[in-house]
Amino acid sequence: MNLAKQLLSGNRLALTRLLTQVENDTSEGRAALTELFPHTGAAHLIGVTGAPGTGKSSLVNQLALHFRKQEERQVAIVAVDPSSPFTGGAVLGDRVRMRDLAGDPGVFIRSMASRGSLGGLAQTTAGLVQVFDAAGFEIILIETVGAGQAEVEIARLAQTTLVIEAPGLGDDIQAIKAGILEIADILVVNKADRPGVENTLKALRSALELAHPVQHVFQHHGVLETVEAPEVPTYNSWIPPIQKTVATECTGISELADEIARHAEHLRESGDWAARERSRLGSELDAMLQDMLVTRFRDQVSQSRYEAVLDQVFQRELAPWEAVKMLLNGRSQ
Amino acid sequence: MNLAKQLLSGNRLALTRLLTQVENDTSEGRAALTELFPHTGAAHLIGVTGAPGTGKSSLVNQLALHFRKQEERQVAIVAVDPSSPFTGGAVLGDRVRMRDLAGDPGVFIRSMASRGSLGGLAQTTAGLVQVFDAAGFEIILIETVGAGQAEVEIARLAQTTLVIEAPGLGDDIQAIKAGILEIADILVVNKADRPGVENTLKALRSALELAHPVQHVFQHHGVLETVEAPEVPTYNSWIPPIQKTVATECTGISELADEIARHAEHLRESGDWAARERSRLGSELDAMLQDMLVTRFRDQVSQSRYEAVLDQVFQRELAPWEAVKMLLNGRSQ
């Protein structure tokens, strides 16, 4: 019985092995993903992102605990750290993980340090998520560090994206994160017992006004007053709620889980669940296509030929675009 | 006379036009880059990166002023903001730029907000740099916001990379940036008149120990004491210096310029200048190849065919890897 079949029969050792195969992008891993794919699509993928210092990991732990103990659901956590390309793992390594969850077979945690390109990281994460999904994990928390484009790409894997903030991280930091608010389905202000929480809430509300102007008009007035742009689908829109939590004291976690459930319901009712799923699979397909095109090219052009062309570029005898054309047209050389 | 020839004859309007063509990746822009390429390779590319709040822009301004006034060199600044994929431009837009440099034809500034993929951003930046290089700008400052993988990729464009820190940005922030220290050729502690500067220096020295352990042994003892690993090329190695500055008061700028010159000299003497140049051109070639492979694929597979396959994936009738194979093998369909 191959690893995929073992996984589907509930073998946890097969799960660990398969995750490693997928992370290393082996042919066995690819074959297993193909076999498992018809068994995916049931899980609720929840992306969690935010700057270091927001207490993101504690929050993910508490959410996992809640889903386990209150809702008896199987929970997987994929923790990704794309911000440290060279010393990957250090940030994840030093944290205290899951003391309350240790030994519970209904929870599975996989940490992944950065490797290769950003695209590769998103692709690998997508693979890991599919393995967990096929293995019957109903909730998959995808946790990323930071607030750059990497996180945006990984957030696109999720059906529901939480963006975590905390008081006292500085105005500069708030400003730079304006972009990521636009991908947030739920905003969480963790460490909400700290001074400055009102300022953080105020900053988030301002940022939300910018990111979701029309929805806010809708929210504030109950009906859409501005009728100049009737093509904007304002009804049925989701306005990201702001949830305060103190993860270390388990405050606000249950309310946050309710908001997550409400968002899932909204996605299903509005048809956005299917739309996001299709868009997600499209991105995945594109990344794989690109990967395969590059692999095929490498198989067709010898390393010595490539080096010779690069040398000509280095000597300024050949411009990069000319080199590309030469390599692509003379593949058999 | 085409734009490339006009540029080479010193026409500044052609420079502006060409930068726009390259930024929009037009066929005219690509043709011009090909024509200009033999005229590139003379500039010293200096990457400047660091978190928001470090006073990076002021520092870049002061450096540009120094190179203009003290060394009478032509200076270009390419300011890139990859951290805000949706509201790109906001962070760059609100800063006070170059009051002392306005009207000086020996300085040219180009701001670029994020667009498209990270790879695309690095590629576009490389193109802009080539235009400035061919136009005779001797110093090209490439400024990026943040400390993620995007900045690392852009830093690879430069021969000399400065990483800017400042006191009081929080320990979490310092920790997350450990990775980027490994790409730093020169560390700058700006705002060095602020409280906490000793802590910042201490944190940087610790991080440097981790990033460059052997070189530090070499530095501290004058000879290499540990002989267990003779294959490590420790002599001739560069130990990133730490330079304190107060950009707003122009303190430490001249010393920083000296360190930059010392690094360029080191690169030329050690042969690293050529090695970095070749590696840089190799990355550029790879990005272009990937780009071209995807373009060719798109030309060969119709949108309706692609959508039909994606629908099969969405319906779970076809796994992503099977879909990729089908699309690549049935190109003419």
Characterise this structure.
Two copies of one chain form a homodimer. Chain A is an alpha/beta fold and 333 residues long. Chain A has 15 helices and seven strands. The first copy, chain A, has helices spanning 3-8, 12-23, 27-36, 56-69, 90-93, 118-134, 149-155, 171-176, 178-181, 197-211, 213-221, 253-270, 272-300, 303-314, 320-329, and strands at 44-50, 75-81, 107-113, 139-145, 160-165, 186-189, 242-244. Chain A has a seven-stranded parallel sheet with strand order 3-2-4-1-5-6-7, with helices on both faces. In chain A, helix 5 (90-93) links the parallel strand 2 (75-81) and strand 3 (107-113). In chain A, helix 2 (12-23) packs across helix 3 and helix 4 packs across helix 12 (253-270). The longest helix of chain A has 29 residues, at 272-300. Chain A is globular and about 65 Å long. At the A-B interface, helix 3, helix 7, helix 8, helix 13 and helix 14 of A face helix 3, helix 7, helix 8, helix 13 and helix 14 of B.
Layout of secondary structure:
The structure is a homodimer of 333-residue chains.
Chain A: H1 3-8, H2 12-23, H3 27-36, E1 44-50, H4 56-69, E2 75-81, H5 90-93, E3 107-113, H6 118-134, E4 139-145, H7 149-155, E5 160-165, H8 171-176, H9 178-181, E6 186-189, H10 197-211, H11 213-221, E7 242-244, H12 253-270, H13 272-300, H14 303-314, H15 320-329
Parallel strand pairs in A: 1-4, 1-5, 2-3, 2-4, 5-6, 6-7
Helix pairs in contact in A: 2-3, 2-6, 4-12, 14-15
| Strand count of chain A | 7
Structural class of chain A: alpha/beta
State the share of residues found in helices of chain A, binned by percent: 40-55%
- Report how far apart the termini of chain A are: 43 Å
Chain pair with largest interface:
A-B, 71 and 72 residues
Shape of chain A: globular
Q: What number is the mean pLDDT of chain A? A: 79
Strand order of the largest sheet of chain A: 3-2-4-1-5-6-7
